[in-house]
């Protein structure tokens, strides 16, 4: 019963295309229900101070536990969530959960410098939705220490309307929320962003940090760190995988790092155990 529009060639490709389209549609409708079905989990990865390797905060990283396909990484579902307009609900969920978790950690640790938590925000949340309103209500509900909630921003989409984005980001800062530029050095996050937007933290992309980049690595890292410091920003290096990465980053003047050498993304309970162990260690 298939319509013959362009001859045999089309018929040959049709079944495969239809199958793929079907999978995609199924995945979309499953993703739409993932939040209410409690299939979205948030893992937390420690961000440490290189000076003494104490935990400064955690980055929240979303996972989707698909009933059949198993645990999916955000690279597999964030883009779909953006395309079907679900990213706003998903983003609000991650923000809300993380803020609640953060206030639990803060009450349990009572450090002089409170633990922070950093949430990835898609630029679509920023441009197509009242993120300010969301952040305000999340802050009102969770009683986290001022300045201890941060958002991380990567994508180039904000450059579609830089004036609007700059205004929004300034208002976010005024709420006492930190602002990190994520994956710095990749195509998405460039120098133009630093000029236009009020970031307080720069996260160096892992491609500059991982040991594979030997040779030119120290030169590039040193320049990025100096640039960030000259602009008054803190620096977090992503993807520190070995002890020598951590040592080198510290010697280059980087203050924070995140990576497998300090801990992989873990569930909230494991993060809490890590924090309490550390506190006991510090007290003894
Ligand atoms: P990102 O924000 O740059 O997060 C860092 C990614 O690097 C995470 O991948 C983390 O698991 C991974 N990573 C950390 N340390 C190491 C290391 O030492 N070596 C290596 N090879 N990798 C390391 P993940 O969790 O798969 O997240 C991928 C990206 O998805 C994130 O990149 C972020 O852009 C996005 N994402 C994650 N959660 C959310 C979310 O809730 N909302 C939005 N909009 N995006 C999210
Ligand atoms: Mg990030
Ligand atoms: Mg990153
Ligand atoms: Mg990334």
From TrEMBL:
The chain holds residues 675 to 958 of 958 of the full protein. It comes from the Bacteria. This is EAL domain-containing protein. Residues 24-279 form the EAL domain.
